[in-house]
């Protein structure tokens, strides 16, 4: 769906302004005049025609006065510009028109939203929290494809973003489909506010965590963001030796008593023999330093990096390096700082015996 911005007309701009025909202008203003809430200023209403919510409403037939405009989709005559204010314009074909989905999605749909670890979004007393799935009404929301609201079934109110103070917060309030802070998209493994570039996010390993907002980073794979529960992926694991969990902290690895935090979660990519830390999206990496000693840290994941390849043997419970053969992941509990390390593989060494277990919040 298109995001509309008013583009300043600059003398040096590479875009040559193209005047619209009277027929096109009539269709544009007829549509803009029909939008609710009504605004006499076209600088505000015309760009809204291309917004996701209004576009869907046009496709559902809510604004028949916009049919003439929608029918210009693909017509070369629509490749023209409307000046909305001094120095500002929109291009009709590029900024306002896009095809309707076929078939159109249901106007509303019931959704359950989860972190990547399977914790479920839940409403209680107008606040949002995470919890294990219990199947009650607090976990059910209704998403409206027209006005983009996300309504909690438990109290009938809509999720609203509070942008200040940074990084903002969320709560539920009486629904208002025209309120920008109540408009959301559920796509690209994110629940994101239409305005502000912020996404719902919560501590993914802790029950009862308060749900808040954070900058959307669509290049990041993180279990802290929310997706529809049916699509929650990947499966996260913990890596444990002698009751101590492997954890990442500032690219270093440690084996500590379970803290049920983000740093203890990994993705075990068996096909590529890689362990990815959820806390920094880097992979377990063993390398030789200048003195020829093996060192352990996390590093940017690269499927072609031979330092990031590991073999897990469920019989011996060892995590042996696939490239540096004979070197195993080792955690000596007598170390004061509990750091993990690489060490020559030794049969039946409890410091080198690990379990890889699916994490259940």
Describe the structure.
By secondary structure, the protein is mainly β. The protein folds into three domains: 7-96, no CATH class; 108-231, Trefoil (Acidic Fibroblast Growth Factor, subunit A) (Trefoil), CATH 2.80.10; 237-358, Trefoil (Trefoil (Acidic Fibroblast Growth Factor, subunit A)), CATH 2.80.10.50. It has helices at 22-34, 42-48, 52-60, 67-70, 92-96, and strands at 7-8, 81-85, 88-91, 108-111, 113-115, 120-124, 127-131, 141-144, 150-152, 158-162, 169-173, 184-187, 190-193, 198-201, 212-215, 226-228, 237-241, 244-249, 252-256, 266-269, 274-277, 282-288, 294-300, 310-313, 318-321, 327-331, 340-344, 355-358. The strands form twelve sheets. It has a four-stranded antiparallel β-sheet, with no helix packed on it. A three-stranded antiparallel β-sheet has the order 1-3-2. Strands 4-8-9 form a three-stranded antiparallel β-sheet, with no helix packed on it. Helix 1 (22-34) crosses helix 2 (42-48). The protein is elongated, with a radius of gyration of 26 Å. The two termini are 34 Å apart. Residues 1-13 have low confidence and may be disordered.
Average predicted confidence as pLDDT: 90
* Structural class by secondary-structure content: mainly beta
What would the principal axes of the Cα set say about the shape? elongated
Percent of residues in helical segments? 10-25%
Residue windows where pLDDT falls under 50 for at least 5 positions: 1-13
Task: Provide the number of structural domains.
Answer: 3
Assembly state: single chain
* Largest sheet entry: 4 strands, antiparallel
Name the beta content range: 25-35%
Could you name the CATH class of the largest domain? Mainly Beta
Named at the architecture level, the CATH assignment of the largest domain is Trefoil
């Amino acid at each position: 769906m298109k995001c509309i911005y008013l583009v300043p007309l600059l003398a040096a701009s590479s875009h040559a302004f193209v005047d619209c025909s009277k027929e096109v202008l009539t269709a544009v203003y007829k549509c803009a005049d029909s939008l609710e809430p009504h605004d006499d200023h076209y600088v505000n209403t015309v760009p809204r025609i291309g917004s996701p919510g209004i576009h869907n409403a046009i496709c559902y037939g809510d604004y028949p006065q916009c049919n003439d405009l929608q029918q210009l989709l693909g017509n070369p005559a629509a490749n023209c510009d409307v000046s909305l204010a001094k120095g500002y314009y929109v291009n009709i074909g590029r900024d306002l028109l896009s095809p309707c989905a076929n078939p159109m999605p249901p106007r509303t749909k019931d959704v359950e939203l989860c972190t990547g670890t399977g914790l479920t979004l839940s409403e209680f007393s107008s606040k949002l929290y995470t919890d294990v799935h219990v199947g009650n009404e607090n976990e059910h929301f209704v998403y409206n494809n027209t006005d983009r609201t996300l309504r909690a079934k438990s109290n009938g109110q809509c999720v609203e973003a509070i942008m200040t103070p940074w990084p903002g917060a969320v709560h539920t309030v009486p629904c208002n489909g025209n309120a920008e802070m109540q408009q959301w998209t559920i796509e690209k493994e994110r629940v994101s506010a239409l305005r502000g570039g912020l996404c719902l996010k919560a501590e993914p390993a802790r029950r009862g965590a308060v749900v808040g907002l954070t900058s959307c980073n669509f290049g990041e794979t993180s279990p802290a963001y929310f997706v529809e529960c049916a699509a929650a992926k990947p499966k996260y694991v913990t890596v444990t030796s002698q009751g101590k969990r492997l954890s990442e902290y500032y690219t270093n690895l440690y084996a500590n008593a379970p803290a049920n935090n983000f740093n203890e979660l990994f993705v075990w990519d068996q096909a590529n023999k890689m362990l990815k830390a959820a806390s920094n999206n880097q992979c377990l990496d063993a390398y030789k330093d200048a003195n020829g000693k093996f060192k352990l840290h996390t590093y940017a994941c690269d499927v072609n990096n031979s330092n990031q390849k590991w073999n897990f043997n469920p019989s011996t419970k060892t995590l042996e390096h696939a490239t540096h053969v004979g070197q195993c992941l080792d955690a000596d509990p007598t170390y004061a700082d509990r750091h993990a390390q690489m060490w020559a593989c030794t049969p039946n060494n409890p410091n080198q015996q690990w379990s890889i277990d699916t994490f259940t919040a």
